[in-house]
Amino acid sequence: MASATLLKSSFLPKKSEWGAARQLTAPRPVTVSVVVRASAYADELVKTAKTIASPGRGILAMDESNATCGKRLASIGLENTEANRQAYRTLLVTAPGLGNYISGAILFEETLYQSAVDGRRIVDILTEQGIVPGIKVDKGLVPLAGSNDESWCQGLDGLAAREAAYYQQGARFAKWRTVVSIPNGPSELAVKEAAWGLARYAAISQDNGLVPIVEPEILLDGEHGIERTFEVAQKVWAETFYAMAENNVMFEGILLKPSMVTPGAEAKDRATPEQVAEYTLKLLHRRIPPSVPGIMFLSGGQSEVEATQNLNAMNQGPNPWHVSFSYARALQNTCLKTWGGVPENVKAAQDALLLRAKANSLAQLGKYTSDGEAAEAKEGMFVKNYSY
Ligand code: 13P
After folding, report:
1. What is the CA(299)–ligand 1 centre distance, in A?
2. Which whole-number Å values give the CA distances from 28 to 19, 32, 246, in the listed order?
3. Which of 134, 75, 133 lies closest to 336, judged by CA?
4. What is this structure's pTM?
5. How many CB atoms lie within 10 A of CB 289?
6. Which domain of life does this protein belong to (predicted)?
């Protein structure tokens, strides 16, 4: 009691001095410059984003790095040669009528400059199909010093020059994937680093005419429940939008590539598509401004059917944004297996790709049913510490 009195009398101003104390500590007005040169590409960015976010269409992610593409080819007994990568990518982009369901294709740098087997540029084939070519621009994940075994994403050095060249080559949008791990924290540092990197990348991309796909992937790894994913996702998107605002990113000229809000891959309790949709839409409403034209989900190791069902559940009512897909594994898995590197199987493999593309197109419109889906398409594809 005595010490409390001492504290009161010696450190705090008397009531009669409150006004003066407030005056002394009142913050001086801060001058903030809010005048920022708009991207010379502003109108084009909005148009590109809207084209990609068009009804019944989504993105085919085929931007596997050469190392990851090698793993895919190895799974069907093929060597990781440029010829094999070219054969597979040719199969994907020449699937007849692909543009009915696919509005954009994300390419790895090699593919942006690659020709199809028949000599036509892959970029030209995509454009003829009505598909906007995009490009993965990040340089992959490396350990984040000072964190809990987490990672950060490299690629900002020289990005402006690379993107200017990609634009010349025909790319009109970009992708940067960084990851957040729930079992490893995530630490405040890892989330801030992910958000800042994405925001710098987004600003640089808009400056060079490319619509940035902003992808802080919250990995499926872990035993946590859906509530924990929801909590982490809210934090990640709050930081990401704060950082993007600080970097003067034009929200109407970006696309997002979030993870759906699901339980961890090793959680005991699984979630129904309705629960995934409820949590994911709640997240989007809390964190994503309606000016963002498109939310293009990643599949992240879900089975082909699960990814489609979840998307369909999210499109049962009107949304302020185009809610769609940007899947790699959930579009390509059956296609790759059906092909198996055998030229005679190309048509069947293309049909498998078209089947998934059409199913997800229907899911974008909220009209998909899983009746008649093959058992293999229901098998999960989760891989621990997945790299791209
Ligand atoms: P998945 O759909 O296989 O998770 O791929 C996501 C991705 O980031 C590809 O661009």
Report:
1. 6
2. 16, 12, 21
3. 75
4. 0.90
5. 11
6. Eukaryota
Regions of the chain short of the pLDDT cut 70: 1-13, 17-27, 31-36, 385, 387-388
Residue nearest atom 4 of ligand 1, based on CA coordinates: 300
CA distance 190 to 187: 5
271, 263 contact by CB (below 8 A): yes
Q: Which phi and psi (to 5°) does residue 102 adopt? A: -115, 125
Q: Which of 215, 239, 304, 306 is catalytic?
A: 215
Question: What pLDDT is recorded for position 23?
Answer: 58
The whole-angstrom separation of Cα 296 and Cα 281 is: 13
Provide the β-strand partners of residue 323: 295
pLDDT of residue 5: 45
Q: 173-180 and 211-218: which strand pairing?
A: parallel
Q: Which CATH superfamily is domain 40-378 in?
A: Aldolase class I (3.20.20.70)
C-alpha–C-alpha distance, residues 118 and 108, integer Å = 20
Look up residue 190 and give its two tokens: 């890892």
| Contact predicate 191/236, CB 8 Å | yes
The reply to whether 257 belongs to the active site is: yes
State the DSSP H helix or E strand holding residue 140, giving kind and residue range, or none if neither: none
In terms of C-beta density within 10 A (0-12 exposed, 13-18 middle, 19 or more buried), how is residue 230 classed? middle
Ligand 1: which of 298, 306, 311, 325 to mutate, most ligand atoms within 8 Å of CB? 298
Boundaries of every domain in the chain = 40-378
Assigned token pair, 169: 């080559």
In tens, the pLDDT along 255-272 reads: 999 999 999 999 999 999
175 catalytically annotated: no
User: How far does the centroid of ligand 1 lie from the alpha carbon of residue 285, in Å?
Assistant: 23
